[in-house]
Amino acid sequence: MKDQGMKAGAAIVTIAVSIGLFGCGGTKILKEPEPLVVTQSLANSTDQRISATLDWVVVRGGPGTWAKNADWDEYLIRVRNVGDDSLQVTNVAVVDSLGTRVEAGTDRKQLVKGAKQAERRYKGQGLKVKAGAGAKTLMVSGAVTAAAVLSVGAAAAFGGPMLAGAALGGIVLAPVLAVGGVFRGVNNGKVSNQIEFRYTPMPVALKNGEESALNIFFPLSPSPRQIELTYVDSEGEHVIVVDTQAALNGLHLVPPPEK
């Protein structure tokens, strides 16, 4: 019996050590988010009712990143009512470079699942998808300053949710648990909570002259062609398109090897 107990104990220790060595991967919140100050937007579109501006896209390892190994994008968008009628923004979607329309989401598992689907879809076209690849295009298209902290001006531009989210991202988390499997579960829970907190729920109501910041999450959407923003007013439903082909060209795509 004593030998069996020792063997069982050794097995438990082996499992714990194995989990600790191999189970600590996955997504987790960074102790301090990557600093981000945007002084120039990436893309804009305006019609007679609404103006939509893409200020930035938070991608894995880039400015504004608050989670490690993220398989999603966080779009920072500003919308302004430039018409005479009140309106409501009801939906935001992106169209990737293969023409696939990608819907926003707040569920971490669904975002990761969508990223894997994109990877398979592009692999079928002979293209390799890698989170954060091609992000230098963002740096060229927008003006980003790697400041030590988020400036008051930039925080105001993104609105309350962005400021609060950035502040939360900088909080030092609770001590790391010893067992890797539990560690991953705790981190995933915190990441899910952060996504839900930062995400802007729809609809967003705007009176004449009002502006609002939107934080919208999408699965990895390689080299997206455009953002499609749907809104409604007293005359019905409308869609405004923001062309992102130049600003986000090559995002998440690994360039083919030179021949």
Report on the structure:
This protein is of the alpha+beta class and 259 residues long. The protein has one domain. It has 5 helices and 15 strands. It has helices spanning 2-22, 108-123, 136-141, 152-169, 180-198, and strands spanning 28-29, 37-40, 43-46, 50-58, 67-68, 72-81, 87-95, 101-103, 128-129, 143-145, 204-206, 211-219, 226-233, 236-243, 253-254. The strands form 5 sheets. Strands 7, 8, 11, 13 and 14 form a 5-stranded antiparallel β-sheet that branches. It has a 4-stranded antiparallel β-sheet with strand order 3-4-6-12. Strands 1-5 form a two-stranded antiparallel ribbon. The longest helix is centred in the N-terminal third of the chain and has 21 residues, at 2-22. It is globular, with a radius of gyration of 21 Å. The chain starts with a helix and ends in a 5-residue tail after the last strand.
Strand content: 25-35%
- Sheet with most strands: 5 strands, antiparallel
Globally, the shape reads globular
Percent helix range: 25-40%
Low-confidence stretches: 4-25, 146-184
Number of domains as seen in the coordinates = 1
Structural class: alpha+beta
The CA-CA distance between the termini, in Å, is 66 Å
H/E topology pattern: HEEEEEEEEHEHEHHEEEEE
Rg, nearest Å: 21 Å
Q: How many separate helices?
A: 5
Let me know the average pLDDT: 78
Record field, number of beta strands? 15
Determine the oligomeric state from the structure.
Answer: single chain
